[in-house]
Amino acid sequence: MNNFRIIARNSLRRRDYSLRSPPSRSFCNLSQESNRPSYGIAFDIDGVILLGSSPVGGSPGALRRLYDDSGALKIPFLFLTNGGGLPESERASEMTHLLGVPVSPFQMVQAHSPFRKLANRFGNELVVAAGKGEPAAVMSNYGFKNVVSLDEYASYFDNIDPLAPYKKWMTGQEVHKETSRSRENVVSERVQAAFIVSDPVDWSRDIQVLCDILRTGGLPGKEIGPQPLLYFANDDLDYQTKFPTERLGMGAFRIALESIFNRIHDNPLEYISFGKPNPFVFKDAEDVLKEIATSHSNQGSHHFKTLYMVGDNPKIDIRGARQAGSPWFSILTRTGVFKGKDNHPEFPADLVVDTVEEAVDFILTRESAKRSLI
Ligand code: G3P
Ligand code: MG
């Protein structure tokens, strides 16, 4: 029985989106000809658009059909991924490069994107950000004023990782350090929260140091204290990359950390998991698609008749779209986690296709048929 306690999830749902400024015309470049589109599309990335960093399922060609000849966005779409580790602007340029279509940072909804809303809450308090890529840069981009990566944080504590001497990839590696910080300041300042921004790389070190932080009220090496807050960007047990079978995800790391923590500590681990299939993620995606759809007109709010979620993981993408309900229509591809012949028994999609190319073809045909009926 998972004996952890979820706290404060409800407050997230009452989110207002006011923090993020609506996209300027140039930002999303929705073409003038697309008059208030009645539908929008959310694409999962791993297993639908990319496998690792390679396009899959004809994704470049499929996405090009959503732009007009001038390269302006014709159909509002975004990427709704449980992945992360880079600021949205950098990830957008990476996607533009990999797919050959102009992707704006506004179209990048990553698992850690909602962390932006927590920046004010922590003010100048020290928080630690873990995971691959640039977790500290991601968080400072969101407005966190006193954030340090777990890599850098651990480097201030001698002997905190007894296995470090055996980690060939670490020996001789300089950890990127923010000049302004002094060791004395960091080791004496209480960590108020830990954010798992993207998939952790060094599990043994990360689990060790996170336990040190979470058991001691944020002061590793000191006496037991109240647990600081802990946030996970997603809870995916596994996901699809280039290797033939699924790879362990952030959810697997969470299970490892939680089972170890609960064995060495009196109180069970408390944490909040973000990311799909949480309903608020789909509510946010709908808000962003509305802003994209109205980016070329100041005609206020927008109503979608249909929002398509194209995903590869039934437990995450399809379950999320089903829970979110109307106007979401779920499409399951066979290029990622799901490889079945028919539909998924527990979380059946509205439609199952082989590739994202087939999904876009279906969507454009269906929507133009609807328009011809008007
Ligand atoms: O780490 C990312 C992975 O868990 C899933 O990514 O794009 O399939 O939601 P995505
Ligand atoms: Mg996926």
From TrEMBL:
Offer a single GO CC term for the protein: mitochondrion
GO-annotated biological processes:
glycerophospholipid biosynthetic process
Transmembrane ranges, per UniProt, are none
Name the chain's protein: Hydrolase family protein / HAD-superfamily protein
Task: Name the source organism.
Answer: Brassica carinata (Ethiopian mustard)
